[in-house]
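User: Structure tokens for this complex, please. No commentary.
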Amino acid sequence: MYNLAWAVVLVPLGACILTYLPESPRRAAFLPILGTAAALVLSLLVLAYRLEHNSSAPYQSVITFITFSPNQDLGGGVVGDFHPQVGVRVDGLSAVMMPVVALVSLLVQIHSLGSMRGDGGLRRYFALLGLGTFAMLAFVASPNYFHLYVMWELVAVVSWLLVGHWWHRPESLRAARRAFVISRVGDLALLLALVLTFVKFSANVALLPATPGQDVNDPLSFTVLGQEWHRGHLGAVAGVGVRTLVVTALLLLVAAAFRSAQLPIQSWLADTTEGPAPAAALMQSATVATMGVFLIARSYPLFLEVPQILALVAVLGAATAVAGALAALALVDMQRIIAYLTSSHLGLALVALGMGTLSAGVFHLFTQAWTVALLALAAANVVRAYGTRDIRQLGGVWERMPWTARALLVGCAGSSGVLLVSGFWSLDGVVAGVLHNRLPNGVSAPAVVQALILIGVLAAMGLGALAVIRLFAVACLGDPARRRGFQPERVREAGDSMRGPLLPLAALTVVVGFAGILGVRATFGNVVFAGSTPQHEPFSVGAVLLTAILGTGAAALGWLVWVRRERAAVDLAARTAAATPLAGAGALLAPARARVASAFLTRVAALPGLLEAAVIEPTTEAMAGAVEVAAAGPRRLRTGRLSSYALTAVAATALLALGVTLAATGHFPGVGASR
Amino acid sequence: MNPLQLVLAATGTGITGSSSTSSSTTSGTSGEFPTVLLTALIWCTAATVLIVLALPERTDEQRSRVRLVALAGAVIPLILATFGLNYQVGQDFIGGTTSFEEQHGWLTSLPVQSSYHLGVDGISLPLLLLSTLLFVIAMLASWRVGTRVRLYLSLLLVMETGVNGVLCSLDYLLLLLFWGMQIVPVFLLIAIWGGPERMRAAWRYLGAASVGAALLTATALLLAAKVNASPPTFDFVRDNTVTLAKGIGGLGFWLSFTAFALTLPVVPLHTWMRDAIDEASTPVAVLLRGGVMTLAGYGLMRVTLTAFPDAAHRYGLVMVVLGVVSALWGTVAALAQDDLRRLLVYGAVGQMGMVLVAIGSASAIALNGAVLLLVADGLAGALLLLLAGAVQERTRTRSIARLGGLAWQMPKLAALWVLGGLTVIGVPFLAAFVGELMVFTGSYPVHSAATVLVMAGTIITTGYTLWTVQRVFFGPSREAFARLKDATTLELTYMLPLAIAVAVLGVLPGRVLPVINNGVQSVVARFTGGG
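Assistant:
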């Protein structure tokens, strides 16, 4: 049954390759859709099976990608084998995430059928969506760091190509390039972590008895490393100390922060909206942006050994959450607002991870996947219909596009944590984690840190709720601004394929949170956990109350400010808004920062040329001059006579060959072969 | 075993949980049967020269006949090299062995003995396949050369004999002869068919290459004089297995290292190679990039590391530092280039810096990675140079600032460029990824800071590669280029094989790695005192 996981991963890849067969691009688009649908069904089967056999060890099936015996001393001992492997791993975490990726991708592809209709590169676009789905599914199901890194990188390439889909638009190109180069920095941190882990652990792992079902122990396998990290922490692995673990964890954190748009590199995620909107929705909700959080969840056994880094994760997450929410409150670009909200919510998921509640963090990732996808797709419909992304110029969506507007409202509720909608339940888990403040192994973060994080989380939740209500109220209610060439009466509801995907997403956004209520959330905690025993998060009345008050309260306040326009509330909002330029500055400064960076790069890049002209060229010139003199009269060599020179050279070579042959056979005077 | 595993087993990827490695019982051919594979491979092209020179070239028909003959002469070595590598892939071997070995008495009455000794191992075989493939591609890319066709093709063929000969020689005198054999043809190819500054570039090439050859000669003579064999010999097998005195080893190391560093090229000795590739016609640039530069990497492993292991160990840090300098210098300089060809050359300098870091750290994993990288970068670099040539031929400019939006007219060329660029960046499932990963993994334990610096350099590589493709191919359509055409069938004929090779090597590096490792082990054994 678990073997189906192979099919889950490979079917979208096959569909993606087949995309280039059908004659019409529109028909070709159905192949990746079918492939993803098949992957979704299969992944649900795998999930169902896994839920039944929850207590058994993770299933793993691997293929050796390359293998040879270097017999190299890496410091900790001689490594007899280098055998990176690829494969699938089914445990709670991957079984839960695979259907999420497949479903969001499927809905995004269906949406693209409508929103990308008539696009010149439709076939390429759908092939890339299929490839990205494959890479993300394989990433989620990865059994070791090698495979994880390969897929990590592949997703980055696919998102570069997707953001740059409209390759004739300079803004798309700039955004795509920025996203790829920035993500490359994170990639290298991950690669370095991989190299470091291999170097430090492989010699020791080779000595271990082989795990059942495998010939060899892979030093990069999550299963093996889960034990090795602990033993390394205890000092039982030669050459590995706490320092190694701290450095590895820091590198992974850097990789995760770059990929999940955490501070201080948040803006690239918002730039991805320069590409096709459905692709941006996919990247924000289920693929690129979630990878960082997933990476930390996957490496959780390591982070549990180094609680100080885990606290850093939480602090970073809280800071990003606040910054993202503030930026969302300050911006006017609809799609960018959603991107910053995504980054803020990913920060909150990191907070939960950092406070030791793995399942709450993954649960937040899980609920927000639907919400973000819903918001981004609904926003895409609105932007498409109105032809602008500036929320101040939108308005009246509620009457003109009833489906989309209601979906947008559900998404806003899910994002802000309004009572009983999914975001509420997962945010409650995050707050409970902060209040509880205890890692599974009993360590707690210092009270100061805990207090700071709590303030950050609450602020982020409140501000985030305000931001979504502002987004909804300003965009959907009231009347559209008058613009030249824009006729509000011609705005129509989006077509079926663009409206359809909103329905399941909205339903999930409302319903999926109930997997997290008391008793049932224990199931989520039972499925997705670190280590060998499930964690049951303590239920915290305080957390529920705080979340309820904050989410619902902030939403109500936002309602008063932007919908009812109560004077007192508007005044309060104005005062808050006075603080937002400061915070939004980060987002607004991004272009200036890019300019400074490019000016700096230009200077540095000119250096080698200058050095060559000033030092190397004159030196070599002098040497070349000497050779020229020695060669006596190169000036005689003119183009007309070159062929005779060439003939001379060929003849000389031939003569030399002849002489050598004669010598070899003993016929050359004075030199003879002995035979 | 599920179907997928079966498929992968059929393609030779090892599978955990089942014993899938097909153990071939065939033993080596050397011994029972005098193999002439390598002799045929090397001299086939030289023999073709004789035919080519005898053919007339007055009419178009005659010229295309000359081209066909030359192409046939270049295809035969490719077939032989493919056969050789394929044969090795099927073998199960333990320990470093040379295969297809040929040895005949030769200059036996000289004071220093030399024999006609050929042989290949895991290091040279993949490089041999690369060079023979690139020569075929260069022949096809030269199809439109109309002036002095006979001479042009003869020079290419002679050059091929030299390059392949270097890769197969197991005797220092033989190696020197072959090394010298490729210098003059390259000089003439640049001087006659090159760009506007060709004479200067050609003379610089000749000068620097002669210096390199002289240094190599000195290395060979030093080995012959100082190895206590009786009678003294130029043979690899004897010269490369003795331990030299400290001073002699150091001298030999510096002689050979400088010779190869000139050609690799290593900063600050790189300007002449830069100018040569800059001014050469596209096919010759491809051969310099993929053939001659690769020879230097091969020489560093085969001569510098193997003959002078103690000194190489002592001065490993020097090599690594130079490698880091080259890697960063090349990539940073590429960022500033406006000339498309020159940008690729600087990129090549950067990639060779990475190879030098691997060679300097001289660990098994890194050296395996270095061989893979040499092949991968040779393929990708060749592809990009060919594409740059195609762009230049159409737009009549190499200045990136004046290009833009070419993907409107040439989507195929743009797609190929994206593929080549992604390979250079080191994207998984494309050729260079596994090589880079292994270079990093292998050098990190030895020189961690240098490894991190080189890794940081790949970020810049990513930057300039993406920036270039976006400036040249993407963006709004330009009026001036509106009438340009996409790739011709001929161009696709020689570019697609490279693209396919890049993808295949990226997906199935596991096929050749055991072979490469077999060769690398004999080099590494010198360090650990085994061989």
